[in-house]
Amino acid sequence: MRTAVVLLLLLVAACGGKKDDGGEPNIPVGSGKSGDDTAREQARFDSERKPEKVVEALGIKPGSRVADVGAGTGLLTVHLARAVAPNGTVVATDIDGAVLELLQSRLAAAGLAEIVERRVVGSETPGLEAGAYDAILLAEVDHYFTDEVAWLKAATAALKPGGRIVISNRIHHRPRSMAAGQKAGLVLQFELTPVPTHFIAVFVAPPAQPAPPPAHGGK
């Protein structure tokens, strides 16, 4: 399964591998696994998680710029890179530079390394430039933030006009994710459940309010 990265990554050295919320170990690509093992890992992930539904929810296409927050070893990143190729960009963020090196190995094997910019960020800040992204993806990561509302508000500033923030996570995290989106002022466009264990929620920034008319002084 895709690596859940924020905070949990701090346990990697002790655990010898990372686990998602289901407790299933995830041995990163490049850590002693053969190419066949990596291909099987990707095939299993693709079958169980239906990443094409995440890509559809993001609304990205060739030329888009999308952020993959907490990208881990890149099981979803490869799909985003294919969707925006040949002239788009995926900014893959993580708090751990080492795991982004493993992501690079996966992308290189798929011939997609040039599409993806790897970026080490803080655990509580998006680390994304303002007004630059068509979509921002948070897959199995938002529940690790200390303050999800503050994080989402900061991420909203990184969207282009009409851009989307897409949260994908396990069903039991849904109430928390939806409440955070609402408190951050985001507008839910639509929601789907591509597999029984996970939901996808698509948010957009609220429409800009028109400026009030100037006050007229005097009589």
Architecture overview:
- It is built from seven helices and nine strands.
- It has 219 residues and is of the alpha/beta class.
- The protein has one domain (8-204): Rossmann fold (3-Layer(aba) Sandwich), CATH 3.40.50.150.
- It has a seven-stranded mixed sheet, sandwiched between helices. It has a two-stranded antiparallel sheet with strand order 1-2.
What brief labels describe this structure?
219 residues, 7 helices, seven-stranded mixed β-sheet, Rossmann fold, two-stranded antiparallel sheet, 31% helix, globular, alpha/beta, disordered N terminus
Task: Summarize the helices and strands and which ones pair or pack.
Elements: H1 12-15, E1 18-19, E2 25-26, H2 35-49, H3 51-58, E3 65-69, H4 77-84, E4 89-94, H5 97-109, E5 116-120, E6 133-139, H6 148-156, E7 159-170, H7 174-183, E8 187-195, E9 198-204
Parallel strand pairs: 3-4, 3-6, 4-5, 6-7
Antiparallel strand pairs: 1-2, 7-9, 8-9
